[in-house]
Amino acid sequence: MKEDKAFVKEITPQSEDFSRWYIDAIKKADLMDYTPVRGCIVFKPDGFELWERIQEAMNKRFKETGHRNAYFPMLIPESFFQKEKEHIEGFNPELPWVTEAGGEPLEEKLALRPTSETIIGHMYSQWIQSYRDLPVLINQWANVFRWEKRTMPFLRTSEFLWQEGHTAHATEEEARQETMQMLEIYREVVEQELAIPVWKGQKTPSERFAGAVDTYSIEAMMKDGKAVQAGTSHYLGDKFARGFEIKFLDRDNQFKYVHTTSWGTSTRLIGSMIMVHGDDRGLVLPPRMAPTQVIMIPVGPMKLREKVMEAFDPLFDQIKAAGVRVRADLREETPGWKFNEWEMRGVPLRLELGPRDVENGQVILARRDTGEKVTVSLDGIGQTVVQLLEEIQQNMFQKALAFRDENSYLGIDTLEQLSAHIAKNESEKKTSGWVLAGWCGDDACESKIKEETRFTSRNIPFEPPVQKKACICCGKESQHSVWFGRAY
Questions:
Q1: In this structure, are residues 153 and 26 in contact, taking their beta carbons and an 8 Å threshold?
Q2: Of 116, 127, 175, 212, which has the fewest beta carbons less than 10 angstroms from its beta carbon?
């Protein structure tokens, strides 16, 4: 079957312009569209279904660990932000404000939420009175606003969708356990469902969430070598509790402040999944996430199509009964055109059925991840498809892991070496990847690395592949081994 070369060329090659490739890929796959509002997009059905798959995976784990979903107002009074100065300072440049309603100026400005710590803190102060009220384990699925100057669909938009968990605990120990538990849930979902390998670790103080005591993250490498912060979990101590007077009477009849956490992931996971797995033909979606896991396409001469269609419907039903998300493309376009379109949309598995296949009791299955075609028996086709989809899922994770490891550099020990490494790769139009470097803990050294290389600290991994002995910047004894790289 000849492929439609013109169709393939509609997507810019990754090596030519990765950002352009990304925009082409998500537009051609019909995941989103732009709107008249700067930095805001429409999630089209396939794009939103990717978010629904992420929601399902997250919700299952949240509820297994005792969390419940709730919803809080989008509009937040300005005075709430003033109760936690460090928090407002961290978000102030990005805040859109509502200053009038019904043609009248408001007595108090209302912010469109950039995150909900303040409004939730206020409500928790009303709800929590005694140790019997703790812990409070609430998650919210919502939209938030950060008026970004530079935007990229799914990755960074002025309005985006996310989940934000907010919990309150009697002790620091409980709150810290919660913080790490949620970070591990994020790792599990992103690695197992989205097939994206990540590094778990702690953020440096300069990268810490505004108002947090400690911030932890999972970091993922895209195919252009840049990093995406794929999820964060924050231990907030009692800072927000003091700001919002969230107190409880403990077992000894003493008033104490609660210890709080917050944690979140967003629709940037969709963009990350596309950037990690996609290729020059378009999307490559992990089977567990794909809206359509199998696309069935009849092939062969039209005069023999009736014979093919007699076998087509029972085959469709068999695969669907196995729990597979399957669709049939019965449009009048040529099979070659259909092949290209569904490859571009990232469907993990294509099933081709022609007259000869019907005679031989077989079908052809084409894998999106490798391009490999296999001929399999119609007998037990449902189970065959399920097994193959799981193989694809695992292969995609291993492929992404190999790419990350190939582009992670462990032997760069000075700022001069890092600058030379970046210059060499830029001259050869290659990715500079990430560098594991020693850091003395001085903010000045971290700032100098950023100024001279545009590499920022991603996180201090809990389990670094090696322990670096000297600071990459000043040469003093290293306090931490840190991943550095360029980031979205």
A1: yes
A2: 127
